[in-house]
Write a structure and sequence with these properties.
The protein has 9 helices and no strands. The chain has about 220 residues and is an all-alpha fold. The protein folds into 2 domains: about 1-55, Orthogonal Bundle (Arc Repressor Mutant, subunit A), CATH 1.10.10; about 65-205, Tetracycline Repressor, domain 2 (Orthogonal Bundle). The chain starts with a helix and ends in an 8-residue tail after the last helix.
Amino acid sequence: MGIKERKERERETRRQQIMIAAKRVFTEKEFEKSTMEDIAKEAELSPGTLYLYFKSKDELYASLCLRVLRYINIKVGHVVSDAYETYEAKQAALMAAMHDVYDYDPLILNNMFHLQSSETLKALSPELLDEINDLSRQALRTVAGMFTDGIATGRIIDRNPIALADIFWALFSGVVLWEESKRMINVSRFNIQETFEVAFDLFQRGLRRSGPPAE
């Protein structure tokens, strides 16, 4: 391994060290109450070293969100590419994949949705913002492609597949955000997986065609 490659590897290792520390701090103190100094202390680094890798707490958090977006694309991509006996089975697999996405990292997922609807995105570097946008669009296009197939085979109602993907994404993010809101305002909470099951079931029922599939 050459000097350049070793330095790049060391830099990536340090970057991962910072992100692991940040995840611990965000989990313990919540994003709003956390500081770069807290993260530096957890990572056993100076605050100045952190700023060599991430220009702000927002950018550090956005980098954590990229992990979730990549995972979403992996899970959704597997569903669409795998062979299922029926379209209904594929749609059920998509719902199960979103359960897995939530279980993967509930905290970061919740704050990712907050991040995407806030002014924080404007403060990110163009490169980071482009990657977030690209991964988000990729996930939506993949889901829309599945709905396109369902429409073409007459398994679901004929509606704009992009709109259906948007509604599906809004349904998922809405459940995640509302569950967190209930925690903040001390409202009785149910098992979020049960909420997902009801929400996804209603969504599936709404997509079904009445009568036999079109030939």
